[in-house]
Amino acid sequence: MSTEKILTPDYFASCLQEYVAILQIGQFPETAQILKCFAKVIQAEAANGKFYDENYPKLETALRREFCLGTNWQPRLFDDTDAIIKEASLDPEKLLMPLKLMELTSIRQENVNKIMFAARKETDEVSRIYLLCFVYLLLLEGIYDEFMRFLYALHKRLPTTKADLDSIRTQFSKDGVGATLFDGWNRIVRNGIAHSTFTVDDTAKQVLFEDREKKELMSFSDFEELTRKLFEVGTAVLVLLILRVLIPLNYRDALKSQSTSRKAC
After folding, report:
1. In the predicted model, is pLDDT for residue 195 greater than 80?
2. Which residues contact 196 (CB under 8 A, 6 or more apart)?
3. Average of per-residue pLDDT across 148-154
4. Are the C-beta atoms of residues 243 and 236 closer than 8 Å to each other?
5. pLDDT band, residue 101 (cuts 50/70/90)
């Protein structure tokens, strides 16, 4: 499939509309509204440098503010993820991979978002923990792991990669990038959920995860935090792909034309 056939205004607009829905399910109402404006302008083929100059800073400000509403960990995750995507997005040859990733992960991410936010609204603590166990496993089976491989491919300038998470973590640590990206990954927790060898203690408000001879005991709040850290990696990747790749790509030609006109004057 050629770049010319994929990178059409209708395609871009449909990508943005899908992610407007995902952001609206989450905690990004202002970002979703601005993104909706971008989608309408792009679909109408009215994209121009003036619209971009006026609205891109608003989108970036809203995105950072809404993403970083939680703990001090979220701004660091935003910056760690942005450092990888921002650098890679400068290479036009890498642009198709982010678009394909967005297309492939949109349904998965939307489903996990719905379960995650249902869990946050659940008033019964035990029910919430079981929902989060489901979320944690889904994230590690085709969402978080794919995002990490994708970030690794961008960082190492590879067309694709099948690297395992241990190798990626080792390489990121060696290169001094993505310091927060593995904060939610716990193999004992993952295997305990996948093999149904975990016990929820309602009285002590703890969960015991067992993986053969290995055990991990966590409070309800610590497990919720672990799941949120895993979940937010996918959110950060998606919203930053929109910000750093999809939106600028739409306006690249308009900005080039604008720059040429200025030089001529």
Report:
1. yes
2. none
3. 89
4. no
5. low
* Residues contacting residue 256 through CB under 8 Å, at least 6 positions apart: none
pLDDT at 99: 65
- What pLDDT, on a 0 to 100 scale, did the predictor assign at position 61? 95
SS3 (DSSP) at 200: strand
Give the Cβ contact number of residue 25 at 10 Å: 15
Q: Is residue 31 within 8 Å of 59, Cβ to Cβ?
A: yes
Residue 163's domain comprises 3-264
In this structure, which long-range contacts are made by residues 251-254, counting pairs with CB atoms below 8 Å and at least 24 apart in sequence?
A: 251/47, 251/48, 251/49, 251/51, 251/52, 251/56, 254/47, 254/48, 254/49, 254/52
Query: Per-residue b/e over 149-183, b at no fewer than 16 CB within 10 Å?
Result: bbbbbbbeeeeebebebeebbeebeeeebbebbbb
Count how many domains the chain has. 1
Over residues 248-258, mean pLDDT: 67
265, pLDDT greater than 60: no
Q: Do 149 and 161 form a contact (C-beta atoms < 8 A)?
A: yes
- Computed over every residue of the chain, the mean pLDDT equals 85
Do the beta carbons of residue 241 and residue 254 sit within 8 Å?
A: no
Q: What is the dihedral of CA 54, 94, 167, 188, to 10 degrees?
A: 50
Give the integer Cα–Cα distance in Å for 92 and 78: 23
